[in-house]
Amino acid sequence: MYNSERKNDNIINKSIDLIKAYPLCDRCLGRMFARLGLGWSNSERGKAIKFLVIMHLHEMLRKGVINKDYIKDVMINIGPISYQLYKNLYNEEPNYKRCYLCNSIIEDFIDKASLQVSYRIDKYNVKKFLIGIRINDDTIIKEESIKSQYKLSYGESIKNELKREIGKKVQQIKPNSKVDFDSPEVVYEISFPDLNIRDQKTSLILFGKYKKAIRGISIIGPTNYNSILNDLAKIFDSNEIILHLINRDEPDFRTLGKGASIIAEIKKGKLIELDNKLIEGHNSLISIENLELKRGQLSNLLTNKKQNRIYRVLILCENDINDELINLVNKRNLMIEQIINRKKINGFMREIACYKVFNNIIECLISIDDPLYIKEIVNGNKTTPSISSIIGSNCNIIEGDLLSFE
Question: What Å distances lie between residue 331 and 196, 335, 348, 349, CA to CA?
C-alpha cells in the first residue's frame, strides 16, 4: 500500500492523509500550515497545497504506485480544482462535499462581516477600531482535534484568521479608519458562523492633574463642593464614570504645586473634541488641568513608572522633641516597608527635613516614593521604620499639603 510505504512527515503526505479524511476548503486547509511561507493568504496557501497534492497523486498513479480507487476520496474532498482529473479518471460528475470546518462559508462570511462593520464605522464616524471574534464550540473542537490528530504544529486558529482578514478588508473599504490594538474607539465582536455583531465601545480615559485649594474635601467622595463627576457625566453623555487617583485621596490634605494625577474612566461615553475650558478650573476649590483624552483599556494605558511625592506636614508628638531627635529624623534614602490592605509595599523616603515649631510639634518636608503612604510613615502603623519609631514617641499629622507629584 502507498500509505505504508512512505514517511508521513512532510506537507504533501500530511495533507493527503488530512484531505482523505476531511473535506477542507482552500482557506481551512491553508490555515493548518499558516506559519510556513510568508506573504500568502491561507486561501493561497491551501490552493497551492491542493495543486501539489493533485500533481503528486497523479504522478504516483501513472507510476503504478497507487490505483485510482485509492485517491477518489481525496479528489472529492479537495474540491473543484480536481475537476478535470476526476472527470478523466472516473468519467462521472464529482459530488463535492462542504468544508468540514467552516461548512464552506468562510469566504462569504469575511465579505459580509467586513461590509457590515464598514457600515457601522461609517454611520458613527469611527476612526480607530478592533475586530473581536467568537467561535462556536463545535468549530473549535473540530479544529483542535484535527491539529492534534495529524500533529500540525504550524497552524493558526480560525479565530486569528478571521480577526486579521476582516480587519484588513474593512480598512480597504474604509481607508480613513484603521485597526488600533492599543486604543480603539469600538471593538466589533463578531460571532462565527451566525454573523452576529456586537459593538463594544471602549472606555474613554481622561488624564489630568488636580489641585485642591482647601482641606476637608475629597476629590472622589460626593460633597457639596465636588461636582467633577456631574460635570464629566454631562460632557461625555455617560452615567458610568470612575475616578482613579495615583495617590491616596487624603481629604485633610491640600494638593498644591503642579497638582497630582487624576484619571477618569468614562464608560460608554461619547467621543468629543476635548475643550479644556469645559472642565479645567471648574470651581475655586478643586481644579482640573493638563487634560489628555485617550480611548482604550485603562490597564493598557497606564505606565509602571514610579513617581516621587513631596509633602509638607505638621506633626504632633506625645513627648517633647529636642535637637538630637530632629537630627535622627533628618535622613536620606531610607528604605521603608509598609503593609497596606494586607499587601507588602517597599520604597524609599528620599529625603526628610524637619525643624521644631514648639515643644512637641515639628514641621517636615518629606520626599517619598510612590506607592508609600505618608500618614503611616509618620504614625508607624504597619510601617518600618517610621518617624514615630525613630523619635521614640507616638506622632501624628495635624495638617498636611501635597506639594509635588512627579
Answer: 63, 11, 11, 8
* Helix, strand, coil content of the chain in percent (nearest 5): 35, 30, 35
117: number of CA atoms within 13 Å, CB side?
39
DSSP of 209-263 = EEEE-SSS--SSS--TT--HHHHHHHHHT-S-EEEEESS---TTEEEEEEEEEEE
What confidence tier does 294 reach under pLDDT thresholds 50, 70, 90?
confident
339: helix, strand or coil:
strand
Residue 14: CB atoms within 10 Å = 17
| Mean pLDDT computed over 326-354 | 92
Whether the predicted pLDDT of 250 surpasses 70 = yes
Structural domains of the chain ordered from first start: 2-90 (no CATH), 106-201 (3.30.2130.30), 204-301 (3.30.70.2510), 308-405 (3.30.70.3190)
CB-based contact 94:87 (threshold 8 Å):
yes
Instruction: Give the distance between the most distant pair of CA atoms in the chain.
Output: 111
Please state which of the ranges 77-81, 273-277, 395-399 shows the lowest mean pLDDT.
Answer: 273-277
